[in-house]
Amino acid sequence: MKSELLVNINGISSFAGREELTRISDDAAGHLVALREGLGRGSEYTGWLRLPDVTVNETTAVKACAARLRNQAPVTVVVGIGGSYLGARALTEALNDPFAPQEHRLLFAGHTLSEDYHAALLKFLDGTAYNIVVISKSGTTTEPAIAFRILRDHLRNKIGTAATRNHIVAITDASRGALHDLAVKEGYETFVIPDDVGGRYSVLTPVGLLPLALAGYDIDAFAHGMLDMALSVREGNDTTDNIAISYAAARNALYNRGYTTEILISYEPSLVFLAEWWKQLYGESEGKESKGIFPASVTFTTDLHSMGQYIQQGERKLFETVIHVRESHKKLVVPGASDNSDGIGFIAGKRMTEVNHKAEAGTRIAHIDGGVPVILISMERIDEYNLGQLMYFFEIACAISGYVLGVNPFDQPGVESYKMNMFALLGKPGFEAERERLEKKLQANG
Ligand code: PA5
Q1: Which residues contact 1 (CB under 8 A, 6 or more apart)?
Q2: What is 51-222's CATH superfamily?
Q3: CA dihedral sign, ordered 380, 383, 389, 392
Q4: Domain 6-39+223-405 superfamily per CATH
Q5: In this predicted model, what pLDDT tens digit does every residue of 322-350 receive, in sequence order?
Q6: Catalytic site residue from 2, 123, 305, 331
Q7: Which residues line ligand 1 (CB under 6 A)?
Q8: Which of 17, 143, 235, 435 has the greatest count of CB atoms below 10 A from its CB?
Q9: Tens digits of residue pLDDT in 80-115
Q10: What is the pTM of this model?
């Protein structure tokens, strides 16, 4: 199956040596084989690799649950953080019409500890019927646990404990964790996050699929997009024709030359959360052992009027990965004006997408000329199928890239440090000595 997604690395040719790129591509091809055969680091978390092959035939239960929840309330609060939040947010933000009234509204909670955010959410929920979908693989993450406790209390006070049960769905581990145990005790409908699929690779499990279905989108098309990309990039080793190898090799070649920050750029504001998802995927997978490209993101042309100056002329450690969207859904032509007093008569009659594409092409050349290597990823349009292709592409390229870098792309040991300190400072039993040490540090630092 040929993918609709194209990757063009011509924009790095004057920054990374051809021989080095070939060497890294060959290395990357070897890592793809290791990934496929379960021989690389962290191979116990590579279940996502073949997830599309089964998921395309297994969406019935998710669709039935979404239909039930949609039927009983116009709003669902999705509670989760990190990999248990960003995929669903990225997809729904990408697909939503920002101005149209939504048939079923998704709201998010537990991705922040902001009291004001959650208080405002509860105030809104006072006036509407709603469901809760709580997502946590470990079932013990503090942020969603707090939000879920607050929301469950709110819902119980609103509709009573017995009715609340039917309004809650839990997505968690098959057999372990506080959320799993609670769901069993309370009798919530549950979905399982497979053991061998880590949070940031879980968008094709119910973690991403249930919110997507709730919002009214075509989860089968999304799964088929993922499958087609899997068949295209997972099975082939040809370094010249495999876009995942190409992207993984290009970014590592640039990293070796001192380009330590990658900026993901899109010209569509609906992709802002896709970039947040991508940042988590690459940041958490590669940033370890004192190594890794720092993933950043901007939205152009908006940020050309803020970050554009730095990118054009600031420190030369940046490279860009631009997501080019070939087709828009709607047509909007710049009208003519008899007096041309705004001076943009030369644009009259052109579609806004054409103008956007010219801005993109012009910026790309200016940035390359200014010393910023550019990788170009071109997708057909923003819909479920093409987002499926894009997300699987990023997942597999990330795994290959992490192996090229020499890290385990499937763990995140560094995420624990802040949690331990937070627990100690909040007085969790067992953390007394640590609390004393931290309090002293805080006092010393003012
Ligand atoms: O990618 C990851 O593993 C993390 O970002 C987790 O998804 C995040 O920490 C939330 O974890 P959990 O789903 O266990 O609540």
Answers
A1: 228, 231, 232
A2: Glucose-6-phosphate isomerase like protein; domain 1 (3.40.50.10490)
A3: positive
A4: Glucose-6-phosphate isomerase like protein; domain 1 (3.40.50.10490)
A5: 999 999 999 999 999 999 999 999 999 99
A6: 305
A7: 81-84, 136-138, 141, 144, 198-200, 284, 412, 415
A8: 143
A9: 999 999 999 999 999 999 999 999 999 999 999 999
A10: 0.96
